[in-house]
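I am still getting used to backbone structure tokens and would like to learn alongside you. Would you supply a protein for us yourself, any chain you care to pick? Start from the sequence, derive the backbone structure tokens from it, and show both lines together. Go ahead whenever you are ready, and we will take it from there.
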Amino acid sequence: TTTTTTKSLDNTEILNLSNNNETPVHRRYLTEPIISVKNNRRAKIEVNQLAELQSGLLHLAELESEYNNVDTSLLTKEQKRKAYRQKTPMSSISSSISSPSLSSPVNNLTFGVPISVMICEDHTPIFLITVLKYLYTRQSYLEEGILRIGGSVEKVQGLKSICDKSSGDVSFLLEELNPHNITSLLKQWLREMPEPLIPPNIFMGFVSAIKIEDLSDREIKFSELITMMPNSNKNCLSHILRFAVLVIQHSETNRMTVTAVGSVLAPTLMRTLNESDFVRYFGVAGSCLMFMLKHFEQIFGVYVPMDFMKDAITQSETILQPITTTTQSKPSNENNQLHSEQKNENNRLEA
């Protein structure tokens, strides 16, 4: 008769980090052999598998030690789960909690992270505020091809890398000389969001709303959909589109018409739930964005500009004609005009 000892891993035991007088189960497994028994035969355990398991348990023991020495009362459950999933020490998460006036980011990255974890002011990321401050104060809206012409790929990637290492301080962007580098950086930030600035369900609502024949009803539906967006997304969208409106108002100088701006920005602001399906909606996405630009005030309501925006916006409203028309044209004619303008602009860009 062969006597064997059986010890199987129990996830609930391993994840138990409570302090007690007994030796934690994951520490015991670091030193005791793990033996699996089947039909009274000792199963062979590959050395590399055992080493990998013990390495993971060792890391868990280290996390437990750090967990017990850090005040985690200010951390949310999701932050604790994320720390465990990414094998991030609790102290690094705890130290990233910012002052109450700002949001509480999980990390200091700028690209590829949700707005909710970025350092924000009034629901607007500091990164976007800095970019807009550059574009307004440098009068970049007068630059020919602004938003359409790309910057230096090498320079933009360098700026992106510095942004991700700057711990939220991106004021260095204000020293950049080429505005096209800044707008390219902005578009890359929008493209790399885990979810688009305009969520897929809101975008599909726009796709349906753009078909509404009555112009006033269409504006109301677009406005309702905007109010359904998260506050951060809504604020970012209104700031970006208000700058786009300013660009269009200076189209005689910068040669950026509403069609050109709509074609350029639509793919960066909107995506379908399945990104591969967006190709089918590219045309209507441009039409939706052009409609929002033409009817910005009716859709977004009273826009409150930041201090550095006021002079440029006031001047443009005083001197230039608004994009929206004062007479109500037939909705079908407006839709046909939007599609026709976008098609011509796409052909021009491809050429």
The chain is about 55% helix and 0% strand. The beta strands are 37-38, 41-42, 120-121, 124-125. Residues 14 and 122 are 42 Å apart (CA to CA). The radius of gyration is 27 Å.
